[in-house]
Specification:
This protein is an all-alpha fold. The protein is built from 5 helices and no strands. Pfam families: CRCB.
Length: 127
């Protein structure tokens, strides 16, 4: 059953990534879609992990399907690295480094924001 949960979530996540990538696209070689998708995934996974670890226990297969499946397939580290490399190869070195900084730094900030959102929701409900 865990495999099915990951597969189902992965199917949905991959389709969502494709739709958003097609809709948002790139700007001057800068893959805005991948950046926004990865930021959203960091926020969602930070929130999900915080909410489901102790605060809102859900079935492990559902957590696996949402986290590893849906969010894992929605986000893409490989596309991020290829995009950064492409920028570097065409001489847009500054833009490549900016993309890396925004992706990693922003990802950490959005993960933390997801944690804080879930933590705040839990504290509000506890009152």
């Amino acid at each position: 059953m865990p495999y099915l949960a990951v597969a189902a979530g992965g199917f949905v996540g991959a389709i969502l990534r494709y739709i958003i990538s097609e809709w948002v696209g790139t700007s001057h070689g800068f893959n805005v879609a991948t950046l926004l998708i990865n930021w959203a995934g960091c926020l969602a996974l930070g929130w999900l992990n915080t909410m489901t670890s102790e605060r809102l226990p859900i079935h492990p297969n559902i957590r696996l399907g949402l986290g590893t499946g849906l969010i894992g397939a929605f986000t893409t580290f490989s596309t991020f690295t290829v995009d950064a490399w492409k920028l570097y190869q065409v001489g847009q070195v500054g833009l490549a480094y900016l993309y890396i900084l925004l992706s990693v730094g922003g990802g950490l900030m959005f993960s933390y924001a997801g944690y804080r959102m879930a933590d705040g929701m839990f504290r509000t409900r506890a009152r």
